[in-house]
C-alpha cells in the first residue's frame, strides 16, 4: 500500500504542479478561459473577477501539487484536493456532455484536450487523491507541523510571485502560438504531391504525373499527400484605417515592431507616453512600426489615432499578453517581446545590429534555457526540502525518545 500511495502522490502532485505552473505563467490567458466559462454559463457579471479567480486557482493548484507530492500537511491538503478534484470531475462531465466550450483550459496553451479527454484525466486523478485521503493518517510527517505550515506558505508565496512576474513582465516561458522563435509567416502555400495508381495484369503500381504509363494500363486510384504545410495562422491579419491589408508589411520586414493595444481605455497617460517613446526609438533605429488596436476611440491619444491599425482583440491578446506591449518580428519570426512595464527600459543599442536569424535563435535559446532552469530548480528544491526535512525530523524524534 505504501508503494501505491507513492505512485498516487507522484501522479496527482506532478499533474497539479504542471497545471498550476502553466496558469501562473499566463495570468491573462487563464482569465480569458474563465470568461469563456462565465459566458457559457450566462454568468457574464462575474467577468471582473476572472483575473483574481484565475490567480487563486493557479496558486492553489501549484501549492496543493507540491504539498501532495511531498506529503506536507497531508491531512488538510488531501481533503482540499479531493474536494477540488470532485468538483473538476463533475464540471468536466458537464462540459463533455453539453460542450458549451471546446477546450477546458486545464493546461492552458501547453496542452489542448477535448472535454472528454479532460474528463478521463480527472477520472484518473480522482481515485489517486481519494486513496491518499483515505490513507492520510498512515502517511508520515516530513517535519513538525509548524515547519510544514511554513513550507506551505512558502510554496504559495513562490507561486504568487511567479504569477505577479508573469502579469507585469513577459512570462519566463510561453506556450502560445506566438512565442519567441515561432514562424508566423510562410511565403509558400501548402504543397501537395499526387501519386496515380494504375493496374495491369492484376498488379497495381504507382506513378507520378510526369511518368504516367501507356494505354495498356488501367487507372485504379490516386493518392494526394501534403509535402509542405503553409502558414497555419490564417487569423493573423492587420488592416489600416482604409481597410487595406498590411499584414505583409509586418511580416516581410527584416525588423518590424508591433505594439498591440487590445484595451486602450485601460492605459494611463504614463503608459501612453511609454508607448510613444518606445515607438520613436523604433523609428530612430529604422525599424518598421505598426501600432494596432481592436478599436479606435477617444481613449487613444490624437497623435496615434491617424496611424493605428486594426486587428482582432483576441489575436492581439495572444501575440502579447501585455496591453500596450511590443513584439519584434524578423522575416516572419517572433524575435523578441516586451511588456509595457519593460518598455520603459528602451531598446538595447545592439538590438538592430544583429541579423534577424541570429536574434531569433539567441532569444529562443535564452527562453528555453530560462524555462529549463526554472523547472530544474523547482525539482531540485523539492527533493532537497523533502529529504532534509525527513532526516532532520527523524533525528529530532530519536533525540526526544532518549
Characterization of this structure:
The protein is an alpha/beta fold and 402 residues long. It has three domains: 2-168, no CATH class; 169-186 and 237-402, Glutaredoxin, CATH 3.40.30.10; 191-228, no CATH class. It is 51% helix and 13% strand. It has eleven helices and eight strands. The chain has helices at 2-24, 27-40, 50-70, 74-98, 115-134, 145-168, 247-251, 269-284, 302-305, 313-319, 356-401; strands spanning 191-200, 203-207, 218-228, 256-261, 288-293, 308-310, 325-330, 333-338. The strands form two sheets. The chain has a five-stranded mixed beta sheet with strand order 6-5-4-7-8, with helices on both faces. Helix 8 (269-284) links the parallel strand 4 and strand 5 (288-293). Helix 1 (2-24) packs antiparallel against helix 3 (50-70), helix 2 (27-40) crosses helix 3 and helix 4 packs antiparallel against helix 5. The radius of gyration is 27 Å and the shape is globular.
